[in-house]
Amino acid sequence: xxxxxxxxxxxxxxxxxxxxxxxxxxxxxxxxxxxxxxxxxxxxxxxxxxxxxxxxxxxxxxxxxxxxxxxxxxxxxxxxxxxxxxxxxxxxxxxxxxxxxxxxxxxxxxxxxxxxxxxxxxxxxxxxxxxxxxxxxxxxxxxxxxxxxxxxxxxxxxxxxxxxxxxxxxxxxxxxxxxxxxxxxxxxxxxxxxxxxxxxxxxxxxxxxxxxxxxxxxxxxxxxxxxxxxxxxxxxxxxxxxxxxxxxxxxxxxxxxxxxxxxxxxxxxxxxxxxxxxxxxxxxxxxxxxxxxxxxxxxxxxxxxxxxxx
Length: 310
What we know:
With about 300 residues, the protein is an alpha+beta fold. It has helices at about 45-65, 115-125, 160-175, 200-220, 285-290; strands spanning about 25, 30, 35-40, 45, 65-70, 80-85, 95-100, 110-115, 130-135, 145-150, 180-185, 190-195, 225, 235-240, 250. It contains five helices and 15 strands. The strands form four sheets. Strands 5, 6, 7, 8, 9 and 15 form a six-stranded antiparallel beta sheet that branches. Strands 11-12-10-14-13 form a five-stranded mixed beta sheet. The chain has a two-stranded antiparallel ribbon with strand order 1-2.
């Protein structure tokens, strides 16, 4: 299904989510539930809240004990969006936060700590559409339990990102490293590697940089690590910079603040095909995805060490 047809797919909108009573979700009253957050598709704020409530069993394991950064669009995607991570006030009772000193400024950032359906629903009710997470949990902020590669095709063609992803996978498999792909919610791909805790943020970042540099050397016409966009030409940018404290990626199953309400969806490697249209996964169509087996169900069973000497 093309993402432009999302407004014609009422299968999700016609379903009632358990715990919804009028304009209340997960015991949280929803303000302005009829506000159209995606005007062209006819998707309301309440429908977005209902989506997050229903997808919670798949989403929450990726938010639990993690510091969250959110993208807020209080008036919908056409009303202006902004990123926010410091919630020192204005949160409903019961939403957990953690005060963390920022190294760059010395100021204290009051991060929201993810984990419960009530917290997610409260955030969406505040206008938060996209949820972004770090590679570490509270209590071990300098020891990542995953690393992420962000493959961004300047051509806008998912086929280019898929080609780069298989080159990356080939190299990782040669190092006996298991990896897991997901759509970004745009035209690119995220490839995550579950880690056994031990290496610190800097060690993980340097490993990711070395891997990106190697796949760019292996396929210089396809992949680049060039930071300047003007110098990338049509090559896929292999971004390792998501691996540091404070850096984030869109959480699996997070909606993105874009036309069509696309969702960042975990994939099986067999699904990563040039013809795949990642924008087919959106707020309404993803509900069907939940009825199938989770392709990342064994993600945490594959925690692994980084290879020595790299």
